[in-house]
Amino acid sequence: MKDVIVAEQLTKKFEDLTAVDGISFTIHEGECFGFLGPNGAGKTTTIRMIQCVSPITSGKLSVLEMDASMDQRRIKALLGVAPQEDNLDPDFSVLRNLIVYARYFGIERSVAEKKARELLEFMQLTEKSDVMIPKISGGMKRRLVIARALMNDPRLLILDEPTTGLDPQARHVIWDKIRELKRKGVTVIITTHYMDEAQQLCDRLVIMEKGKILVEGGPQQLIESQVGRGVVEVVNPDQGVEEILRSNGWALERGSDRIFIYTNERRMVREKVQKDLPNANVIARDATLEDVFLRLTGRGLKE
Hints:
Blueprint: E1 3-14, E2 17-28, E3 32-36, H1 43-50, E4 58-63, E5 66-67, H2 72-76, E6 79-82, H3 94-102, H4 109-122, H5 138-149, E7 156-160, H6 168-183, E8 187-191, H7 195-201, E9 204-209, E10 212-217, H8 219-226, E11 230-235, H9 241-246, E12 251-254, E13 258-263, H10 266-276, E14 281-286, H11 289-297
Parallel strand pairs: 3-8, 3-9, 6-7, 7-8
Antiparallel strand pairs: 1-2, 1-4, 4-5, 9-10, 11-13, 11-14, 12-13
């Protein structure tokens, strides 16, 4: 499988702050790769180095088989970037936003208009082509930002928080479009705070904290290796319950109002808890990527 991005001991420093601390990873052609982590983990800084808008302090970074320290202009021409902010031009219509953007890549007007109309159809925005930006919904703006990122037929698409603030219907439309792009061979990088989004879309991902990579792998692989296939929750436990549960040798984590038991034997653990604690409120469910994220990075707020 062809490598689209190869990072070796990638480091970024801002005076006394090390934002990215010697990380190494590889992204393969045609996959969706996720960067997850709390605020300040180094995700955005890593993405900015891949985009060639922030210089590398040390280490090596190859993007599309080019050196990110030497070939910035050539790399940028092959990237599509959808930033978190909907930075569309409010003075232009939906269609004109795409046509004007195409000028940055030297695309002729006739070619740009044809491409723009194809992308509006792809993103289900054809009926809004002549509507001004302030009059379309947030979900439409996000789809238009992604369409704009595709105007230059990029080999690598970078999506920064692609569905933040959207309703479930709009989120799923964008998810479907990302999957369709993958089927066409486009390599996709996403950053997201929605763990269900990463679990649905990513072939592989990393979870970062304090500039370092904590784990890397496929979503289900990480779930099973880090927490197990199931979680049993004991809600509002009475005093002394934690000690009783720990006597079984289970992997526990204490939340604000519940105790989490991570296990591959969810049914057996639930039955054991209900037998030992007949008055306890017990919930058993499948483990998720969010369980992995919270167990690795903690449940407190990160600023």
